[in-house]
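Field log, afternoon session.

UNIT: design team B
ACTIVITY: writing a sequence onto a fixed backbone
BACKBONE:
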């Protein structure tokens, strides 16, 4: 075998044995999750939808911008001044607050102003002032004109409810009022085809709004003033009555001072209270002295009795007398003791001293009894004084309690009179201020920017519309691409074929045409592919393109067949497909061409006894071919050498039933399954190096299924973006049931601009591979590449 100008193996799966099972027959979505790379590949594969939707929406947007009537927007800005609503009534009537409450109040006020600007009252006022109802923009002209509609068309706005509603609806549709976040500004804008009219409407609306705001404030102030005036009349009489009642209560309570604390009764009560307190203290002291005098030492109590009171001199005398008597007693006791010890108790002097001591003891006892009597009398006197003070205090307290009740009534009446007087004075003051402020033309609104005539239309905004159209088109294109990808059940991913069939992909054939230009062949990709093309038109013609992507793809396919374990031993290959128009004839002819370049003898058999597509493509439609060999009415003359491809022998299908010759195969499937076909294939094994048999598709007819057990390997051709996945699964199941030796699948007509093609095949040079005029000594003759036709497309 000579070396080839190829890139070696096309896929790693080509090295696997055909009978090697896979773990499962799961779909590709079960093998790997949908990642970003898969999404990008899907979008690139379906980019036609994105281009189409984006272009269509761009065109529609451009047409809309061209056909749309330009509309101009005039804008004015209003500032809301920070001003208390209670200015006319003073700070005392307006609730205090700050911080968060102020922010909330301002937001409510701002939203209220925005709502007033959008009100029907102001809109109707502007419409009447500018006479907008008679303009073309606001003309009431419905399509269906009943008698009532015609009447309202001629009537003024106030007498035509439908006309009024339609006019207000048109006015508000073009009016826009917004508050500027974080500021005290309000923007008012109006859109109209006439720029002067848009500015005039905005300025008129703002002026009417300022006037309306002032009128509301003026009416509120006037109403408040009138209400205050009515309230002051009754309040004045209430103040006078309250003051008179307070004076009467003051007289009845006996208060002659400026307040309830300046009166004789309270002063006397305080004095009696002091006297009672003093008497109680004196009585307690006298009681203590009396108890001690009666139970204790009277001599010591005599000193206490003489410290205070009216009997102080007498107490002092008693205390001196007792002291003298005690001194005398002490002296007599001393003398008595000495005399008794010296003379004895019977001595007259001793007896005299004893009698004097007895008399002295009697005097001392009498004096002590006088002290006890004096303490008792002082205690009784203090108790009587306390009782008298207590009685006087209770009587005065009753008088003060009655006066206190009257003072309370007086205090309440006095406070009521003072409150009524203060309220009357304040209201009178506010009434005078309101009368002045009602005439002032003040407002809390300021026109920052009046509306000016716009110099450019606001609608349509061409850059914005085009950008939005582009974005919408791209979004719609992506959605359509996803929908198309979801609904597409055709074969697009080689890994998907391997997953659903457990059969390796042997090679990928690009979809391309060759176009000769000067000295070098160039590759030209078709614009689109069709699965069911009409049979007819120009037949394929051989072209020399040794360095084209298609030629290299078939060389890679040949390498995959020869390097696979079953392909090394195989000599007879059957090329088939699931359905028609998938490129099996194209693949068989080009694969036979690259096999013939290896130097051996290669036989190409057209076993499609129904259509003979390969015979028509090579213009070998003679009456003698495979069918006649199987019927035993032909000899070696049925084999023909192709002069364009050295080493390639071609066996045509022969006469077909559709042409009604003398000897034609009535039933091709029975003819291909006869023993004669098996004998021919055994003879081909010894005579040729490789045999490639082109057969009909598997699913429509059973010819390929009948022939498959007798060949060494079966190659199934699946057309990219045309063959249905279910057809491939069904084909593999049918061939497996027939015990066919399915070698693998060839993906035909893959778009060279598809991301899947570059992912699996890549690119090298200008056309897949670099080509130049100088060739190595071992390079073979150029292969024969059959281009696409309407009847059998690559």
């Amino acid at each position: 075998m000579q070396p080839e100008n190829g890139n070696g193996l096309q896929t790693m799966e080509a090295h696997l044995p055909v009978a090697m099972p896979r773990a499962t027959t799961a779909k590709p979505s079960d093998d790997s999750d949908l990642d970003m790379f898969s999404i990008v590949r899907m979008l690139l594969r379906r980019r036609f939808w994105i281009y189409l939707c984006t272009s269509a929406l761009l065109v529609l947007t451009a047409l809309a911008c061209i056909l749309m009537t330009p509309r101009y927007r005039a804008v004015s800005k209003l500032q809301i001044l920070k001003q208390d609503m209670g200015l006319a009534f003073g700070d005392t009537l307006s609730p205090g607050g700050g911080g968060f409450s102020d922010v909330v109040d301002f937001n409510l006020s701002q939203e209220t102003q925005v709502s007033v600007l959008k009100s029907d009252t102001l809109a109707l006022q502007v419409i009447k002032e500018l006479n907008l109802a008679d303009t073309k923009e606001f003309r009431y002209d419905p399509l269906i004109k009943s008698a009532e509609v015609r009447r309202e068309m001629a009537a003024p706005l106030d007498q035509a409810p439908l006309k009024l509603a339609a006019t207000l609806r048109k006015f508000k549709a073009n009016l826009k009022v917004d508050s500027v976040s974080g500021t005290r500004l309000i923007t008012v804008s109006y859109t109209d085809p006439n720029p002067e009219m848009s500015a005039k409407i905005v300025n008129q609306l703002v002026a009417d709004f300022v006037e309306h705001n002032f009128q509301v404030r003026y009416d509120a102030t006037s109403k408040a003033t009138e209400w205050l005036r009515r309230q002051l009349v009754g309040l004045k009489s209430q103040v006078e009555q309250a003051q008179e009642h307070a004076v009467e209560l003051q007289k009845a309570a006996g208060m002659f001072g400026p307040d309830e604390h300046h009166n004789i009764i309270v002063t006397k009560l305080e004095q009696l209270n002091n006297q009672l307190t003093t008497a109680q203290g004196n009585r307690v002291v006298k009681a203590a002295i009396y108890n001690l005098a009666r139970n204790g030492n009277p001599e010591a109590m005599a000193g206490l009795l003489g410290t205070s009171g009216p009997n102080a001199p007498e107490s002092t005398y008693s205390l001196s007398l007792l002291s003298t008597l005690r001194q005398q007693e002490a002296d007599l006791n001393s003398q008595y003791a000495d005399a008794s010890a010296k003379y004895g108790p019977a001595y007259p002097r001793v007896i005299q001293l004893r009698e004097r001591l007895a008399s002295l003891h009697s005097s001392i006892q009498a004096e002590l009894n006088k002290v006890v009597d004096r303490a008792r009398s002082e205690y009784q006197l203090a108790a009587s004084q306390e009782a008298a003070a207590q009685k006087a205090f209770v009587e005065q307290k009753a008088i003060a309690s009655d006066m206190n009740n009257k003072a309370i009534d007086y205090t309440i009446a006095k406070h009521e009179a003072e409150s009524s007087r203060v309220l009357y004075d304040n209201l009178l003051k506010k009434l005078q201020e309101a009368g002045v402020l009602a005439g002032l033309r003040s407002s809390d609104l300021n026109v920052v920017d009046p509306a000016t005539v716009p110099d450019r239309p606001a609608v349509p905004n061409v850059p914005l519309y085009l950008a939005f159209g582009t974005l919408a088109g791209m979004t719609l294109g992506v959605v359509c691409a996803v929908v198309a990808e979801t609904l597409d059940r055709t074969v697009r991913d080689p890994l998907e074929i391997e997953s659903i069939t457990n059969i390796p992909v042997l090679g990928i054939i690009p979809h391309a045409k060759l176009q000769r230009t000067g000295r070098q062949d160039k590759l030209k990709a078709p614009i689109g592919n069709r699965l069911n093309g009409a049979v007819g038109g120009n037949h394929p013609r051989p072209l020399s393109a040794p360095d084209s992507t298609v030629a290299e793809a078939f060389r890679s396919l040949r390498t995959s067949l020869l390097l696979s374990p079953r392909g090394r031993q195989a000599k007879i290959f059957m090329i088939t497909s699931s359905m028609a128009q998938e490129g099996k004839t194209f693949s068989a002819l080009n694969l036979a061409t690259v096999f013939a370049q290896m130097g051996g003898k290669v036989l190409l058999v057209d076993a499609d006894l129904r259509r003979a597509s390969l015979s028509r493509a090579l213009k070998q439609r003679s009456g003698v071919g495979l069918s006649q060999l199987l019927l035993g009415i032909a000899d070696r003359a049925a084999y023909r050498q192709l002069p364009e491809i050295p080493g390639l022998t071609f066996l045509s299908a022969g006469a077909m039933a559709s042409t009604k010759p003398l000897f034609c195969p009535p039933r091709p499937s029975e003819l291909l399954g006869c023993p004669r076909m098996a004998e021919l294939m055994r003879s081909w094994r010894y005579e040729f190096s490789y045999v490639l048999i082109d057969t009909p598709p598997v699913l429509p007819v059973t010819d390929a299924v009948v022939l498959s057990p007798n060949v060494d390997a079966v190659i199934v051709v699946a057309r990219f973006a045309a063959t249905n996945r279910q057809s491939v699964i069904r084909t593999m199941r049918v061939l497996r049931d027939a015990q066919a030796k399915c070698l693998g699948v060839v993906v035909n007509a893959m778009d060279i601009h598809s991301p899947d093609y570059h992912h699996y095949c890549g690119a090298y040079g200008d056309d897949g591979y670099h080509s130049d005029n100088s060739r190595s000594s071992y390079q073979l003759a150029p292969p024969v590449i059959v281009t696409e036709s309407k009847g059998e497309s690559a």
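LOG NOTE: The radius of gyration is 66 Å.
NEXT ACTIVITY: expression trials, pending approval
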